[in-house]
Model the fold of this input.
Amino acid sequence: MRLCPAPLALLLSALVAGLAFSPLAAAQSPSNTKPGASQSDEDGEDGDEDEEGEEGEANGEGEDDEEAAQPRPPRDPSERVRWGKKPFVRPAVGASLFNDGSQTYTTVALGAQAGLNVWQEKPDPKVVGTTRVLGQYIIGAGSSGYEVRVGAFAGPWYKVVGLRTGPDIFHNQYSFGAIDLAPTTGLSWPVIALLDFKVINLYGGVEPAFFFSSDRPGVDWGAEPSFGFGSEFTYLTGIGLDVDAFGVSLSYTDRITAFGHQKGFGIGFRVGG
Done:
């Protein structure tokens, strides 16, 4: 039996068309990698992924900005301020004049002082301070005495000017001829202004003193023409010269006591700081 060419051609065409739309062919098509997904669905998913990525980047940037905006915790105060310190030992030599209204007594003071200078290691303004122990023995014609002091002083410093104040506990005793300033323990509180021009330095201030207990009377300020307060009162001033590792200083004090004015002249030396 012979088939007609036309029907045979129609049958072959139907078989080819059926293979073209088979599920296997659809799965292997490069334009459709997911079964049942169209090109428009892929574009939509790609857009969602892009939006998620942009949103994630935006959220990440926001978190970074928030972290940067948060203030940093303060440092430990012990780390913020560093202190320099330098111990010292120096002679304490001087002379004094005591006038009881009718006679003047001249004495010489010999002694030493030791202590520690401290300062903040930071730009001005800063705080500087000194702790020191001082001992002196006083001798003279018809005169004698001694004094021991333990004090701590501190204050602000800016460029060339500063202020120093603090407690100074003392114990002293003096004899000038027939006048006896009985052994006394007390507290003085100096307030001193300072100027330091590197080579030359100046200072001046006042120092009221208050007796804890003593047979020595305090000053009667109603009868004393000079200004003051407390049991005794001292005016003090001084000048220093510093050249490299060597320094010398001169001081003057006027201590007002119940028995008269005790004027002191001191000299100090510094070697090596």
